[in-house]
Fold these 3 entries.
Entry 1:
Amino acid sequence: MKAVTVPRFGGPEVLRVTEVPDPEPGPGEVRVRVFAAAVQPADLAIRDGWSPPGVTVEPPVVLGNEFAGVVDRLGPGTEGRRVGDEVLGFRLLNCQAELVTVDAAQLVAKPAGMPWEQAGSLSASGQTAHVALTLLGVGPGDTVLVHGASGGVGTVAVQLARAWGATVIGTASERNHDYLRELGAIPVAYGEGLVERVRAVAPQGVDAAFDAAGRGALEASVELVADRDRIGTVVDYPAAERLGVRGLRAPRTAERLAELVRLWEAGGLRLEVAEALPLEKAAEAHRLVGTGHVRGKVVLTA
């Protein structure tokens, strides 16, 4: 099969689409023929040499942490799954390929009407947003500041917070302000003067802040939110430790992913795909994500 491989750590130019052996499902696993797999900032970090907590990544490595496709082979002990099932799911690495093996418990059914590109882009960003807002205790009556609100994680976070009864202020570049209004957020431009702009649109104050952007977002947040236990980040863990706010992490689960799928089916979740590119254009996809200005997600199609 073809797979997006990192033969050595470095910039986007190191990426190669290579032929690697087809994986075979073990006990409790299924094999999925991948139709779409999104590119996350975490993929760029791994390409540069970062290892996720508890894992040591050494090249060569196949990238990708989320996918959607069709089950094409069953391992022993996978009752409840059938060849031909349309699914979306997650695993650590190996998803940006024509085939992936995965624990059957990390899959959910893909709705018939969900486009493949959207299905392949939901799990990582969607679950990151869900975990973050849950840990920050976001609920009815809150005013929540979402930094990086037009990106993949931010797009879902805005809509989840709105669905859970919160008012949302979202930071983004000016060109994405109409987009944020469509999602139900009050947009503000990031950068110098952010604290004053947020106070102008939220004179009642801000109850919680979620950083999906970095770039000084936490420093602004501690000026706006009184309770530092309700400020968290998924991108700037060193600043979180320095400022005494929360670095947000939790395991991904099929139950959480299924909740997001149900919200999409009910019309309460819009998924934005900025670009869908073939595996062979993985380097271009990494460059796009690396700009930090993608609206929604960039997806690779196999």
Entry 2:
Amino acid sequence: MKTSYWLVAACLAASLPVQAQGFKPIEIEDQELSTLRGRYVMPGRIISFGIVMSSTWQNANGDVIGASTTLQIQQSTIKPQFYVSLVDTRGSGTSTAQGYGSVTGGAGLSATQGVTQSVRAAGDYNSAYNNVELNVRESAQAPQMDVPHGQVLAAGYTITGSNGAGSLSVSHNGSGISMGIQANNNQGHSAQRLAQGGLVQATTLLGGGNAVNNMTQLNVVLRDNLPSVGALDCNLDQLKGLRTFGY
């Protein structure tokens, strides 16, 4: 082997701290890893974060009940708040048929972790969608804040609404937000909840001709100008000495 190889190896070994030579890897338990997830973004990199959450239910008559809630946070945000806009549309149909379907089981759906999506149907001509979107992009500056609209939903409060399609409730318990729709005429119900690191979207259809949509969208904007070159290349500078050996 060439002398230069041995020389490079000796230099690298001599430059290592004494503590590093006796380093022994330590296995990290899953419970510890669970507390680290989602924390790998450099400080100051996120310049805008927003949540859009909506639920709607349309019955066979064309009546639509629903709500949309938004939250947007930037450096200039003084107090993050959820804004809720209700959806109330009257249809032109005349059908008032009762739903006679029956769905059993599913008790475990309320005890899941992470993202849970479920659709259970006991009727005909229904459609149901559970959608989760994560939009991440880079920008030199935060986007212009949208003008807030709707009612402010403070922690501990609930906003309700109702029409021919059913009744709606939007709640904020301080650690998360939830939406629930109970359709009229035993047509079914839907729920959407974002809290404690998990997301649940669930729909149960007992009648016919319904269209249900649950959507949660997370929007993140990252600063695209990286830290100073010196901060990133400090370790690479130590390797420049290898160039004299032909590497």
Entry 3:
Amino acid sequence: MNIEIANRLQKLRKENGYSQEELADKLGISRQAVSKWERAESSPDTDNLIILARLYNMSLDELLYDTESDEEIRERTKDVEETKKDSIDTSKEGIVITDDEGQQVKIENGHVKFVNKDGTPVKRTKAQIALTIIDAVIFAITLTAYFVWSFCFNAWHISWVLWPLMPAVMSIFEAVFKKQMTKFVYPLLIVAVYCFIGMQFGLWHPFWFLFITIPPFYIIADMLDKYVFKTKPIEAKDDDEDDD
């Protein structure tokens, strides 16, 4: 796919108020597939092009080639732009918070519900559910280890290093699931290890050198993301990542 069509697909998606994840759900594909279309790394097949044309209420020619004038584009996207505002509505039934993408958080009778702009419940992927479970397990293990270590060995002065270590470990699983090494919060791991070595063995020097490894780690991780896992480097992330 050439870059002009890729840019057009991205523009049409945004004009119609869809995030990459929402559009992927409509098409029954992964968000990564939509992202690759918009980076001109792959092309949608004929079936997906037909669905996109129907979704955007246009012909295939209009989908692939920008034949509209600026005035027509403004008119077609007027309603979308007017609705893309954050809002909070309160009533006797509860509170409804709507973001600029149309997704809602409904608080009713003590229950919290996440709803898409079309009224359907927000579906969480298996990976998101797995990460939530893993994070809960890691938190439970950390809390247990903290009290056991502190009470049994009177190590209150040092056991706190488990808390910066906890999010570092959580981020390892996130990096693996998302195949994005820059998601690993490496500095927190270094802080936890350095404080433990310093307080336990008094080796503040020369282990300060551990902090020097942080920049090389992110340089290597960024290269792995870009060339091995084919994800965008951290400095090149566009607003699509914020949409999801």
